[in-house]
Amino acid sequence: MPVLSGATHAMTLLRALGAGEIEHPGGSLLEHVRRVGELLGDWDARPALRLAGLCHALYGTDGFPSALLPLARRPQLAAAIGAEAEALVYFYASCDRKASYPALLDDPPLFRDRFSGRILHPGPQRLRDFAELTAANELDIARVSPEFRRQRGGELRALLTRLRPLLSEAAWTECRAVLFRAGAHAAPEDGRTAGGPGAADGARG
Q1: At what angle are helices 29-42 and 124-144 packed, to 10 degrees?
Q2: The predicted structure's pLDDT at residue 5
Q3: Segment 14-67, tens digit of pLDDT
Q4: DSSP secondary structure string, 85-133?
Q5: Which of 37, 45, 74, 177 suits a disulfide with 49, CB 3.0-4.6 Å?
Q6: Residues 114-144: tens digit of each pLDDT
Q7: Can you tell me the distance from the alpha carbon of 52 to that of 80, in angstroms, rounded to the nearest whole number?
Q8: What was the pLDDT predicted at 95?
Q9: pTM of the model
Q10: pLDDT per residue over 145-195, tens digit each?
């Protein structure tokens, strides 16, 4: 689906579901998801991932439990943004972060679906998409909320450093700019020195 057409349908749906009325760091939830989609576009993400960024919070997440759209209405979202983008939204929303974050780089990777309880072994592309969307979501909040950076900055640095092997160069450059500012924290070149397995379990979005 062309990203402009999908984005128009997505924004119409988000507004109809009240995303503009839900408070979120940096303004409303609608503003947040719009910025996430734009950030992914800045990183040259393919259209389906950009649309997933725009809609990533519709089913709720492990860090933002307020679902705007019940899972029973997944076909409605798929019709609006395409099946591939909707599947990415579901995958992101379904992540049991406490169980999954420490195991995403295992061999094989382990991912727990918090909706079904199933343990999955995602392929490389799905993992890269998930990491990229995770980075875009968390970095947007970190950019607009000094309080979030103070409270969760260390956890977020550890998480995204751990996910570094899955991130694009553009995403990692943004991580360094937002989370390792002014030499206050040394930015590692890869994910091998990341923090412990519980890093950023409580991050929002």
Answers
A1: 120
A2: 81
A3: 999 999 999 999 899 999 999 999 999 999 999 999 999 999 999 999 988 889
A4: HHHHHHHHHHB-HHHHGGGTTSSS--EEBTTT--EE---HHHHHHHHHH
A5: 45
A6: 999 999 999 999 999 999 999 999 999 999 9
A7: 11
A8: 98
A9: 0.88
A10: 999 999 999 999 999 999 999 999 999 999 999 998 744 455 555 444 344
Structure token pair of residue 67: 């679902």
Angle (CA) 168 174 177, round 5°: 145
Pick the closest to residue 158 from 201, 108, 106 (CA basis): 201
| Measured CA distances, 40 to 44, 69, 157 (Å) | 6, 23, 19
CA distance 41 to 43: 5
Cα 140 to Cα 33: distance, rounded to the nearest angstrom = 9
Q: Rounded to whole angstroms, how far apart are CA atoms 194 and 115? A: 28
Of 24, 26, 85, 84, nearest in space to 54 by CA: 85
CB atoms under 10 Å from CB of 96, counted, come to 16
Q: Is 118 exposed, middle or buried (0-12, 13-18, 19+ CB in 10 A)?
A: exposed
Distance CA 173, CA 162 (A): 15
- CA 124 from chain centre, in angstroms, equals 16
List % helix, strand, coil for the chain (3-state, nearest 5).
60, 5, 35
